[in-house]
Write a structure and sequence with these properties.
It is a single chain. This protein is α+β, with helices and mostly antiparallel strands and about 160 residues long. Helices cover about 45% and strands about 30% of the residues. The protein has a five-stranded antiparallel β-sheet. The longest helix is centred in the last third of the chain and has 32 residues. The model has no long low-confidence stretch (mean pLDDT about 90).
């Protein structure tokens, strides 16, 4: 009896997801690297520097509400990002310590994308979002592919008998 219509599809999903994540990770890494490499700099001034919280109880996280003004080609812009990645803190004091570097009125160096001057950061450190995604894809590949191939091999063996 052949039940080809009732084959499980999840092993095929396990085979497809890691390579797709790997491609996504490569794209993110390449994109972030290119943007950071072409960034130019200008002087900016901190306009707002506060900490806010999200969540309740043990799931509370703390975030920086930072705003700085900078000028590119005689146009004013408002920036809010420290780096390419958004950072959250589990402890309020950690957020306060990070914020202490950016008091209101402080002049600082702002890095902006000449192709999109509205995209600005205060540090050009790469957040490694793409590398983390590729690493996760590699780990999933090591664990999920053997499971999927084992299931498909067993399914094929059962169907043959």
């Amino acid at each position: 009896m052949n039940n080809s219509g009732s084959r499980a599809r999840w092993p095929y999903i396990l085979l497809v997801v890691p390579p797709l994540l790997m491609i996504l990770g490569y794209y993110l890494h390449h994109r972030e690297s290119n943007i950071l490499a072409r960034m130019d700099s200008t002087v900016g001034e901190v306009r707002k520097s506060e900490v806010y919280s999200q969540g309740h109880g043990e799931s509370t996280t703390y975030h920086l509400d930072l705003e700085y003004r900078y000028t590119v080609d005689e146009r004013d812009f408002i920036g809010r990002k420290i780096g390419m990645a958004n950072i959250m803190y589990e402890e309020k004091q950690d957020a306060m310590d990070a914020l202490a570097r950016f008091p209101v009125g402080k002049e600082l160096q702002v890095f902006f994308d000449p192709e999109d001057p509205g995209l600005a950061v205060l540090t050009r450190e790469e957040p490694d979002n793409g590398l983390m995604t590729m690493t996760m894809a590699g780990i999933l590949l090591l664990f999920l592919w053997p499971v999927a191939f084992l299931f498909l091999w067993q399914d094929k063996k059962n169907r043959a008998s």
